[in-house]
Design goal:
Helix 2 packs antiparallel against helix 3 and helix 10 (246-252) packs across helix 11 (259-269). The protein has helices at 2-35, 38-55, 62-86, 103-112, 121-136, 142-163, 185-198, 212-215, 222-234, 246-252, 259-269, 286-295, 297-302, and strands at 175-178, 207-210, 238-241, 279-284, 305-308. It is globular. The chain is of the alpha/beta class.
Length: 314
């Protein structure tokens, strides 16, 4: 009996070591991904998945097993998306689906294949100038303004490089806004929507604002449908999820909650690219939002831009 217990503890320790190593490599992959070092990111995503899948051989907890497998799959999918992008096919991809779609959906799908004309230097300069003017109207928010200007310049640079024939990947566009209520998070999300639209990154300049109650229902499978409806409404623009940390608080306490379905539904489309894809902006208090992204490594890897909004000084 003692021998069996020791063996069990040894296997558990091995599973933990493999899992921790896999997560460590995955975090490095995310940093490379966000920095545009896509080949390094691909190798690290694949290596992280290998470690995690090896850990499943020794892990006995069914809940932990499910989480490890999900994370491994996420890393493999992101690696494949980046490989396609490097091959000139565009990172991410359209949702897979069978036939029988509505005429409206078919027309939208056809529209996705039509790329707008590249912006001219004059149009890019105008968009940058307008964004700078809009930012100057905001009170305070110096660090946010600086990040917004950097974002605008990076997007403009990518557009210029594509116009010159260089192969550029569609960057991760999703964001996390942290700070107390009333510090301008919703206002800046509207500026982001306008910027993305002006530069041709997104099809619309609209922002759909939701909270947990708009996404989560009280019965199995209803949450997925409710969330999918909001995602469809925001298609081509921004889905602003306010107090997003509420989606994981009950789960982190081990309580039964359907919020996981909402997160799963959003993550299904967060690797999609193109003008008609949804840009997610998750907002809330800093401490709670840090816990929100740490709950699911897949979420953390999909959020590139993080803005912190300081309180207004009197």
């Amino acid at each position: 009996e003692i021998s069996a217990r020791r063996r069990g503890l040894a296997l558990l320790a091995m599973a933990n070591d493999l899992r921790d190593k896999g997560i460590e490599i995955a975090n490095d992959a995310v940093r490379d991904d966000n920095a545009g070092n896509y080949e390094d990111a691909i190798n690290k995503y694949c290596k992280a998945a290998e470690y995690l899948m090896t850990a499943t051989k020794y892990e006995k907890n069914p809940v932990t097993l499910k989480t490890i497998r999900e994370k491994s799959l996420e890393y493999v999918q992101r690696a494949e998306a980046l490989k396609q992008g490097l091959a000139g096919k565009g990172a991410g991809g359209k949702k897979a689906g069978g036939g029988g779609g509505s005429k409206e959906e078919e027309e939208e799908s056809e529209d996705d294949d039509v790329e707008p004309e590249p912006l001219t230097e004059e149009q890019l300069a105008k968009a940058e100038a307008e964004m700078k003017e809009e930012l100057s109207k905001l009170i305070g928010m110096e660090s946010v303004k600086k990040q917004m200007e950097q974002l605008c310049k990076q997007l403009s640079l990518d557009i210029r490089r594509r116009a010159e024939g260089h192969n550029t990947l569609d960057a991760i566009r999703h964001m996390m806004f942290t700070g107390n209520p009333g510090v301008g998070k919703t206002t800046v999300s509207r500026l982001v929507a306008r910027l993305y639209h002006q530069l041709g990154v997104s099809a619309k300049d609209s922002v759909v604002e939701v909270q947990k109650g708009d996404l989560v229902a009280g019965y199995v499978n209803q949450t997925a449908m409710k969330t999918a409806k909001k995602i469809k409404e925001a298609r081509g623009g921004i889905l602003f999820v306010d107090e997003a940390y509420q989606l994981t608080q009950a789960l982190q306490r081990g309580q039964s909650d359907f919020s996981g379905e909402a997160i799963d539904e959003m993550m299904k489309v967060m690797n999609e690219t193109g003008r008609k894809s949804v840009t997610f902006v998750f907002a809330g208090y800093k401490k709670e939002m840090d816990e929100f992204v740490q709950y699911n490594a897949g979420l953390e890897s999909r959020i590139k831009h993080r803005f912190h909004f300081d309180d207004y000084a009197v």
